[in-house]
Amino acid sequence: MRKWISKLIPLIMIFILTSFSYNIIAPKIGTVALPKTLKISKPTEVLYPKYKTAIENDDEMLSVNPPFLGDSYNAFKEALAFKESQGDYFVTNTLGYVGKYQFGAETLQLLGVTNVTAFLSNPILQEKVFYTNLSRNKWILRRDIKRFAGRKIAGLEITESGILAAAHLAGPGNVKKFLRSRGTHTVQDAYGSSIVYYMKIFAGYDVSAVKAVRNPRI
């Protein structure tokens, strides 16, 4: 009898202990669908600049990696914006030029924008105005682009993007005079940037996405 009880007691103890144990339940792991805007369906541009740009500063040439990609239209506009305002949509310079691309009130009115304050606070509108102005300049300079792109003037290689950048700086009329005078007629802005300088540092971009339009407006 005692032998039977001695065998039964360990079994009873095991039963009692296991009855107080916790059940371990694996946590449920939910799944979250990735938004379509974050899914990659095609190759994207490499996140480093294709070229380095030489920029003059106090008579020294500094090698700068600008904040843009490759030689696309986006690269062109972001490089130009960085030179104009360091890409700041909300800045006004000492001469009253405003926004990321530094437009004057007269140019804005010409393109259909009459409220400078509203323009300065609207990045989407600023991008539309920049493209519209390029379209206008490309129409005005279309014959000069066809005639001079790929040629050299005073040792400077002329490109379509360089012409459009210079027109943004000094206006298409002054760029025409520069090209047709073979470089003898040139101008610069109040900060010392010249047509030659803009044609040089903004050469070689692909601006074929810009369509030449006569008298475009926003």
UniProtKB/TrEMBL annotation:
Q: Which domain of life is it from?
A: Bacteria
Family annotation (InterPro entries):
Lysozyme-like_dom_sf (IPR023346)
Q: What is this protein called?
A: Peptidoglycan-binding protein LysM
Tell me the organism.
Cellulophaga lytica (strain ATCC 23178 / DSM 7489 / JCM 8516 / NBRC 14961 / NCIMB 1423 / VKM B-1433 / Cy l20)
